[in-house]
Design brief:
By secondary structure, the chain is an alpha+beta fold. It has one domain: Orthogonal Bundle (Cytochrome p450). The protein is about 50% helix and about 10% strand. It is built from 16 helices and ten strands. A five-stranded mixed β-sheet has the order 1-2-8-5-3. A three-stranded antiparallel β-sheet has the order 4-10-9. Strand 1 (about 30-35) and strand 2 (about 40-45) form a beta hairpin. Helix 6 runs antiparallel to helix 8, helix 8 runs antiparallel to helix 12 and helix 9 (about 160-170) packs across helix 12 (about 220-250). The chain starts with 18 loop residues before the first helix and ends with a strand. The model has no long low-confidence stretch (mean pLDDT about 95).
Length: about 400
């Protein structure tokens, strides 16, 4: 058996997964890994095995399970809290997820296009008003998905500075104490919104709908409603904002492909899919614990062992994506795992795709001379154990 490898691995380039994962992919699909608490688990680095395991009901997403793998010290803060449906298995997972689906259907998301275009237009004006050099994250990449998810949930955007900061600390802090503090702030804030929306039928959005519907009828507990709201609020703006920022860097670093992106609107959907594959911002997602022995690819995963299925290695598997290290906007990349796979596939993927298809072309249309203020090689990658992205990105034009 090969030596135990380190997991998670830190990026050296902010807009693509670590090269170490590609080296593991070349050696095989499953590799032993030692976690921070000394337990041994598995990391999966090939596309076929990743999808097979993500769809296997013998792998559990129950974060309250004492064997659920920890990939960071801050993970312990999550383990002791009531999980949102992302941390549940069926049938509970399906029961709670179905309550949110009406707000994320393809039809509903397409109805939001005019409003998202209006929001993106406002963000472009905010970036221009900031004056070059300016922070693309604070003035463009973050405001778009943040305002969109606020309106979808019913959260007042006037509170965005608070919840963006708390979300950032929740997802990026290094210690259990810092994560617990950020989570407590968000729980108290969202709990107060549930109180308000329960009494006010004029409040639109998912939180008000559930508060006056499923919660009032006893079909949903208050803890589960608050947990669902927190999941959708934090994931709904953090991930897409990071793809906008890292996607902008990727395009600027590939000027020949950027030129075609600027001039051919037909390539936009394909460019978005390739950026989702190439940046793989949720590289530390796909964490599970085995509830039974699983034989796969010549290895046996034992019951109680942790299984890490990062989307980066699967998205760079040469068996599925030839020459995966090449950013290629002509690639048919829809088979990527950027949104996960199986029953936990990202609920908001249609919304994220639409936001990206609107925000990225508009950015380069409004700022035709957009450029990085400093070389991409000087940009600092994010922590290995959380959503990948940039805290700031200074650009000029």
């Amino acid at each position: 058996m090969e030596p135990t490898v380190s997991y998670p691995q830190t990026r050296t380039c902010p807009y693509r997964p670590p090269h170490g994962y590609s080296e593991l992919t070349a050696k095989g699909p499953l590799h032993r890994v030692e976690l921070i608490d000394g337990k041994l688990g598995w990391v999966v680095t090939r596309h076929a095995e990743a999808r097979a395991l993500l769809a296997d009901p013998r792998l559990s997403s129950d974060r309250t399970d004492p064997d659920f793998p920890l990939i960071s010290a801050r993970g312990a803060a999550v383990r002791r809290q009531p999980p949102a449906f992302i941390g549940m298995d069926d049938p509970e997972h399906g029961y709670y997820r179905r309550m949110t689906i009406p707000d994320f259907t393809v039809k509903r998301i397409n109805e939001l296009r005019p409003r998202i275009e209006e929001i993106a237009d406002g963000a472009a004006e905010q970036l221009r008003a900031a004056g070059a050099p300016a922070d693309l994250v604070a003035n463009y990449a973050l405001p778009i998905p943040s305002l969109v998810i606020c309106e979808l949930l019913g959260v007042p955007y006037s509170d965005h500075a608070f919840f963006e900061d708390a979300s950032r600390r929740l997802m990026r802090s290094a210690t259990e104490e810092e994560v617990a503090a950020a989570r407590k702030e968000l729980v108290q804030y969202l709990d107060s919104l549930v109180d308000s929306f329960s009494r006010d039928s004029s409040q639109t959005g998912l939180i008000g709908r559930l508060a006056r519907g499923e919660l009032a009828r006893g079909e949903l507990s208050r803890d589960h409603l608050v947990g669902t709201a927190m999941l959708l609020l934090t994931a709904g703006h953090e991930t897409t904002a990071n793809v906008i920022a890292l996607g902008s860097v990727t395009l600027l670093e590939h000027p020949d492909q950027l030129a075609r992106f600027r001039t051919d609107p037909d390539v936009v959907p394909g460019v978005v899919e390739e950026l989702l594959r190439f940046t793989s911002v949720a590289d530390s997602a796909g964490i599970r614990v085995a509830t039974a022995d699983i034989d796969i690819a010549g290895e046996r995963i034992r019951a109680g062992e942790g299984v890490m299925i990062p989307n980066g290695p699967a998205n760079f598997d040469p068996e599925v994506f030839p020459e995966p290290d090449e950013f290629d906007i002509r690639r048919g990349a829809r088979k990527h795992n950027a949104f996960g796979y199986g029953i936990h596939q990202c609920l908001g993927q249609n919304l994220a795709r639409l936001e990206l298809q609107i925000a990225l072309p508009l950015l380069f249309e409004r700022f035709p001379t957009l450029a990085l203020a400093r070389p991409a090689t000087e940009l600092e990658p994010g922590r290995a154990d959380t959503i990948q992205g940039l805290g700031e990105l200074t650009v000029t034009w």
